[in-house]
Specification:
With about 400 residues, the chain is of the alpha/beta class. It has a domain of about 120 residues: Rossmann fold (3-Layer(aba) Sandwich). The chain has 16 helices and 14 strands. The strands form three sheets. A six-stranded mixed β-sheet has the order 9-10-11-12-14-13, sandwiched between helices. The protein has a five-stranded parallel β-sheet with strand order 2-3-4-1-5, with helices on both faces. It has a three-stranded antiparallel β-sheet with strand order 6-8-7. Strand 9 and strand 10 form a beta hairpin.
Length: about 400
Amino acid sequence: MKTRAMGPRLQQDLQRYPAVALVGPRQCGKTTLAQSLGGHYFDLEDEADVLKLDLSWDRLIEGSDLVVLDEAQSHPPVFKKMRSAIDRRRRCAGRFLILGSVSPSLMREVSESLAGRLGLVELAPFFLDEVGAEALDALWLRGGFPDGGILGSEAMPGWQRNYLALLAQRDLPAWGLPSKPQMTERLFKMLAVAHGTPWNASAIGQSLGLNYQTVNSYMDYLEGAFLLRRLQPFHANVRKRLVKSPKVYWRDSGLLHALSGISTMDALLSQPWVGSSWEGFVIQQALSRLSASGADCAPYHLRTSDQHEIDLLLDFGTERWACEIKLTADPKADDLARLNKTADLIGAKRRILVSRTLTPMEAGTCASLNLPGFLARLADTMKGVRKKG
């Protein structure tokens, strides 16, 4: 089993809280990571496991072993039982690990029953630090899912298409999405076209015969299932007019490429939208690295009315990083100069141009880095923050 970067953070939270929720998309490796910790495992989508849990509950809560509850939102009564068990031994940490593939319904149960008693950890599919820099192109093309992505190269694109079909036909309706499966699959394809662009619910709704409120509600479900991300615009008091729409990205590049009929690097590099694919891939890698490091960071994008842009703005509270993402092996000085000019508008402390360069360079607060170098810089910075803390 490949080591997951989120493992240490998960174990730290289990030492700190009575219960921890490990959330993330289906098939991203939550169950494998949870079972590596030992304890007693129950899949609450399986009626037999629900019965076993019910019959062994009194014995389990009196012991000290970890109880792992997979797809916990499928069996809501367990949350009140957990609250009662936790409150009887409030100082005892690491008793329950809850796994979930859909954020809204799980968080609703958590907020009603386990507020103040639980830590929250989000596991993404594999990212570059977990598979090695030599796998960069394979990870970008196929995505980070273990079975059909980076660890299952022969399965693409069939695995991704089946994955999305099952979500549309079974999981999303079970989680409350009122859309018919055929409509959901049409929406998936339209969102593949919209990847890396400002979010326009009205335009998508017009194509689907839906109003923008309905499209936005559907998008909420897709975000809650960890499929899509709406990167919010940064609002600041600057002299230029700012674009106020979020930008929409598929979190996993393999799903995006499968929806677009892409299964080879040659085919990917010939697409007119390949730059948007690279941009979304880099953003996901950076946010996965920060999440695994336990960083308290809010991500944004920024774009002015005269086309000055910051693809990824990282707000750490005490400082801001402005990151421009270019699909080129030969970044120009003008690219960094343009980034600096925009970064000055919001007082960004660090300015980083992320590309495919083979000659990374740093000078003061400015840097031109490739993706492995960028992720290393994020990791080093987070280590420094933890030492100061």
